[in-house]
Design a protein that fits this description.
The protein contains 6 helices and no strands. The chain has 143 residues and is an all-alpha fold.
Length: 143
Amino acid sequence: MFYHVGVSGVDLQPASFEELAIPLFDQLYNFAHWLTQNREEAEDLVQETYAKALKGFSSFQLGTNFRAWMYRILRNTFLTSRTGLKATMTVPLDPEEDGPELAVDHETPETLLFERSNRELLQSAIDELPVLFTKRFPFLSAR
């Protein structure tokens, strides 16, 4: 289902926003939960998305997909929060005794993709080894 707005920029009112945005709440929450893998973070992300969207509603372009606009705000808010989180939660090389021990350990779609890619590259390299290696080191042969 696509939500196209047929009103002019001058006529955009908070009531119009509510009519368009409220039906998307469950879909946006599900997407946010998939991104964050955490219920509380997903709730915060959706709340921030709605706040930003309402604030910028007057800049919404006529004839464009409102649903896609909301998803883009949510995605950008998530990405911005992640880059900021990584910058503030990193561990110094020489940690203080009272300082944090671990960096953020959330799996993101990007880290999962890199991990899968690395596994595939490693398996490909193992598959290309001469038979001599795989006979001498059987754990390198089949998966």
